[in-house]
Amino acid sequence: MPAVLELRRVSKHFASHAAVDDVSLSVETGAFYGLLGPSGCGKTTTLRMIAGFESATSGDVLLDGARINHLRPYQRPVSTVFQNYALFPHLTARGNVEFGLRQARTAADEMARRVGEVFDLVHLSGKEDRYPHQLSGGERQRVALARSLVLRPKLLLLDEPLSALDPNLRKQVRAELKALQRQVGITFVFVTHDQEEALSLSDEIAVMHAGRLEQAGSPEDLYVRPCTRFVASFLGEVNWVHGIGVRPESTHISRVAPGNGARLVRGTVERSTFLGNRLHIAARTESGETVVTEVARPDAGFHPGEQVYLWWQPQDELAGLR
User: Fold this and answer.
1) Of 127, 239, 259, 268, whose CB neighbour count within 10 A is largest?
2) What is the pTM assigned to this prediction?
3) CATH 2.40.50.100 for domain 237-318
4) Beta bridge partners of residue 317, listed in sequence order
5) 188, 181 contact by CB (below 8 A)
6) CATH number corresponding to 3-226
7) Which tens digits make up the pLDDT trace of 90-108?
């Protein structure tokens, strides 16, 4: 698929601080693309430069191959869903969704048709005349989505779109958001600091750290083949033993040393947490490192103070990390 969005060596400086430093990335048409990283890593600033709310200090932002650095936000075929949704409190849900179309002087019959379609799309039919304070958090988020989708943008930007929702609702809306993106076929670029959210939603993820792009790729590639210790640790838990990284799900525990060519260390169980269908176990190695793993059968019964073997296969090591 061709790239709908490209960033070429984009930087953004505030005084002497580089919020974004020499970032290059490419987003394919129709992709669900995640910008992932901790607070202050530059991901929201990057999103704002794509939208036109911030200007790049250097580098180029391209949409369909055309440089758009000079275009104001309203001149770009891009819509943004903000973290707080930014709904107009004095307008109904319908009024909020119609707002952009009215600004564009869309004909009344065309506006009614498109607004009706988008309310059906986000499952809010029947709630068009409610005001934002009469809607739940999930419904307000859907209104914000509808307000952007009705404009039929080439690119939809989402800044921490699920952070204001409670955990259970967040999982529900996450699934709906993925299905919606597939249905409309619009390219989504979204910012998040939530690893599970990024892994479950994204076709491709760009991991940012301290203003720089650490690594970009599919969720599977980033998790299984991280290039840096930061990416490995940020995208899930890692056991570090003598400088070697291995995921907890690839780490095993036993009372008897395995004879299968595994990497092997001895340790002492520190804690064992019952999680229903499994035990979460943390053990301290002889060299003082903490290793965590899980046992599928709680009746296996590893107890604090017990001497154990911790082991993994060489092919499961996270190799070549910077």
Assistant:
1) 239
2) 0.86
3) yes
4) 246
5) yes
6) 3.40.50.300
7) 999 999 999 989 988 999 9
